[in-house]
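With this grant's support, the team has encoded backbone shapes as discrete tokens. A representative record is reproduced below.
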Amino acid sequence: MDKYSHITNFDQLIEVEHGKIGTESRNKYEEHTQMFIISEMLKQARKEAKMTQEQLAEKTGTKKSYISKIENGKGNIQISTLIRLFELGLNKRIGLTFL
């Protein structure tokens, strides 16, 4: 029997592909997913503001290479830095939700 034959929704697919919630593989998947979302939101907001990575870095006191890493989903980001990039650099408010 195919491991996908019983799947009827997206949550089941994620469980088959990445494991149950709380497992190491699932935690890594969730972490990478969140980083991807943040990186895409930053990239989109920066482009909407018609700013280069260099301009955003200068405005927020960071480095272009760091912003590039974040936008490519390769760097860790502290919440304080995330807030500074969005709120100070891009004039966007951040709301966090914990589930």
Q: What stands out?
A: The domain at 10-90 is CATH 1.10.260.40 (434 Repressor (Amino-terminal Domain)).
